[in-house]
Specification:
There is one protein chain. The protein has 13 helices and ten strands. The protein is an alpha+beta fold and 359 residues long. A hairpin with a 4-residue loop joins β3 and β4. α1 crosses α4 (135-157).
Length: 359
């Protein structure tokens, strides 16, 4: 779990929405979720509710028990996409949702970048996450968090995590044995989508990666945004698996850019898919305007929409380089401006700076 051994990071131009790394941990002396008794489950929660009080600095936060949770708190955790809920058929049949919601809860730090799920599929799910592609930073926080949890549990109870010399960290599901770690990013791969999802899956297999849709393990794939994670848990160290994910995503993105040129030509991929730029910069308009340079400053449409192309969080996503931009690129600017400001195509602006008219 030494983050200093990680080499490099996700490249800056890769359209990564977010990064999330999680591990599972089980505390010695308590049953795993399918077999844990009610008393043991409550004991795990009581231990963790006390242990998290010892966290300091960027890990400090608050624990929220599911039992008796206020509606306002519940809704905020739902809005933050933090809350785990009952109803998973696999967990129910496996016996993991007995006595719901007693003995379960969620901890998160003040910045909402470090979480602990208590008594979901595993006794503990320890999670580090943030927006963007700083995988190394997310891993560093996770390493600090796991140590803080382990040290605090040891201080409160004298107990250790279940660690087997052959199978690594013990989890309820054997697929999570070993590191119990899943390091993932949500990344746009439009070129690979055009090339074929089945081919992407085969390429990920070569890179020891696992592609999913952003709706989770069984949620299916929509659009061109993928959840890309390490495939293995057992047989590799945490550093090795994170490195595989970083290097693999960088490779996929370089290949994606080649496929974009192959399938889309020079029409740029607009990362901010829900922006006004994505709505109004069509391929037809791009082909019409792409070679125009404004008289005043030699500005181009490519420069105008650079933010919408580079970032995935733009609402408008376009800038004018000079007055000419509004005229030369009017097929894009006019409908975009009309929608944003709610004006008609024939609207005329009026200006009146007479303060005596203010009532």
């Amino acid at each position: 779990m030494d983050p200093t051994k990680i080499k490099g990071n996700i490249v800056g131009d890769a359209p990564v929405h977010s990064t999330r790394i999680r591990v599972g941990r089980s505390i010695d002396g308590f049953g795993l979720s399918p077999g844990i008794t009610k008393e043991q489950r409550v004991g795990v929660e009581q231990l963790m509710a006390s242990a998290v009080q010892n966290f300091t600095g960027g890990l400090a936060g608050k624990y929220y028990p599911l039992t008796g949770m206020e509606e306002s708190v519940r809704q905020q955790l739902v809005d933050d996409h933090f809350l785990f809920v009952s109803g998973d058929r696999n967990l129910t049949v496996a016996g993991m949702e007995r006595d719901w919601p007693e003995g379960r809860g969620i901890f998160h730090n003040a910045e909402k970048t470090f979480l602990i799920w208590v008594n979901e599929e595993d006794q503990l799910r320890i999670i580090s996450m943030q927006m963007g592609g700083d995988v190394k930073g997310v891993f560093e926080r996770l390493a600090k968090g796991i140590k803080a949890v382990g040290d605090s549990v040891k201080k409160e109870s004298g107990k250790e995590f279940c660690l087997d010399s052959k199978y690594g960290y013990i989890h309820s599901c054997p697929t999570n044995l070993g590191t119990g770690m899943r390091a993932s990013v949500h990344v746009d791969l439009p070129g690979w989508t055009a090339h074929g999802v089945d081919k992407l899956q085969a390429r990920c297999e070569e890179l020891h990666l696992q592609p999913r849709g952003t709706r989770g393990e069984s949620g299916g794939q929509t659009g061109h945004t993928y959840d890309i994670s390490n495939k293995h848990r057992l047989g590799y160290s945490e550093v090795q698996l994170v490195q595989k994910m970083i290097d693999g995503v960088n490779n996929l993105w370089e290949e994606d850019k080649k496929y974009q040129k192959q399938y889309f030509g020079d029409f740029p991929f607009i990362a901010s898919q829900h922006s006004l730029v994505a709505k109004y910069v069509t391929k037809e308009k791009w082909d019409q305007l792409k070679n125009i340079k404004t008289k005043t400053s030699g500005f181009t449409l490519e420069k105008a929409i650079a933010c919408a192309v580079q970032f995935n969080n733009q609402h408008c996503g376009i800038y004018a380089g000079d007055w000419d931009s509004y005229k030369d690129f009017a097929p894009v600017f006019d409908p975009l401006i009309q929608e944003y400001h709610g004006i008609s195509p024939d609207a005329k602006h009026t200006s009146d700076m007479d303060p005596t008219k203010i009532k």
